[in-house]
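Batch 3, record 17
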Amino acid sequence: MRDSGKKRILVIEDDTHIAEGLRLNLSFKGYDVKISPDGVSGIRDWKEWKPELIVLDIMLPGIDGLTVLRNIRLEDERLPILIVSARGEIEDRIKGLSWGVDDYLAKPFNLDEFLLRVERLLTRSSWGHEEGASAGVPAESIYKFGKNVIDFENFTAVCSCGEVTMTEQEVKLLKLFIANRGKALSRSELLEMGWGYTGATPTRTVDNFIVRFRKYFEDNPHEPVFFRSLRSVGYIFDHDS
Amino acid sequence: MNRFRWFYHPIFIFVFSIVALAASLFLYIYWYIEVSAGLQAVVAKHHLDPDQFFEAQTWVVILVLSILVGIILIGVFLIFIYNQRTLQLYQTQRNFINSFTHELKTPVTSLRLYLDTFAKYELSREDQIKYIEFMIQDVDRLLNNITRIMNLAKLESRSYRNEFMESDLVQTVQRFCKANSGLFRNCEISIHNPAGTPFPYRINPTLFDIFLMNILTNAVRYNASDVPRVDIRFLPEKKRLKVQFEDNGIGIEKSEVKKIFRKFYRPGPANDLTARGSGLGLYMVQQIAKIHKGEVSAQSEGTGKGSVITLTLPLRLQPAG
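Prediction for the assembled complex:
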């Protein structure tokens, strides 16, 4: 295999020993491997480096693996993702599978089994590409909450104030909120996942977006129902049904 | 199936029992009055002496019934509280098992991975040494985890009674920091003793080391600063000695400040999957402080603003001469 032909595998794993062991073995097999030590950098690396397969741990500092999975699945339904987790109980596997993981391996695992599963996943996804379909198929193009209907494909939304056209960044942030529905997100988490900023960038950018979202989607922007603020935490998006 | 889950919910059962009890009390009294009214009518009809039968008794009966129902009510309430506590404990214990399994499985996974790799590939001597070093560290991690559980068991069985010795706290802390400098390589730990005097206490060195280790690793682990910093201050007061451990870490949510010392407690929702500790570190810190007749407390201005753990000990009188 030529260098350029090497398949890229992103390993999102916080334990340096396991990550290094996986990197070593995957590069022996001729893959190009990158390691992200936590969820936030994992999402960033997925966006910037565009790997062909992701090996994902569930228990990660900051943003957990299942949230990373949901974030990726919002934008890319096809990318093969293999979860390698110490949580091997049936409920955990089902949770992972229901959110669109391709394969699930419980720690500790057999090296050959791991390598074969990786190989198999990559082979299968290469068939999909040959059929001519491009990667990056959005999961759902229509999303409804309250009186609002959002069309992700056309970047439009029908809401109480009529139809609005959204910017790319607004759509991105909205997807992020939907992926983390019912879960509090801090400003820095939103910045890092939505914009790819690193560190604690002191900026009110997120707040400005929230103001806009509330204007679009809330019946009364001063008493928000969907995009609520949590004092000293950040924001939470949720709705009924 | 899920639709009927509320039926088994303890709060529902509790409220339902109270309503049932109140209703039965009402019915007892109602029927009693009804029946005695009927009897009274019979008595009046047959011209018997009414005083002989009830008058005085009616209120006694109502009183006795009320007291009995009251006792049952208290019983139900206590059982409800115990039940809630048991559920809570069960939940925290499950949390603990989950996170502890994670802590055990991680080094085992790493060991297994490298052993498989060694069996599969011929590695260069240099790589071999690097990965053997990894494996040794993994074994140490496993041993540490096992020691922690053993220490906890020891702490709870109180089998350390006679292992106390006289030593100066300032020196003990200094010695500890020096001995473990490898663990806190990228951190700044400074010890301040403005009074300049030694503070001799009877301490259990093993336990005190665990105490310091837990506080310092927390300060460093839950820290997002470039250089984690811990300031240890010895502040004698009139009757007490305060030892403060101030860090520049991620801080503690106001609502969590008191809870963090509970056994198996970990901040955040129970099903949170982000990897965190076992919920034992600060519990052990508190237990060890108690064994040394002291107390620990935590203060924090909120998340992102660092935290202070304070150990308060009764000030010992300096030995005369």
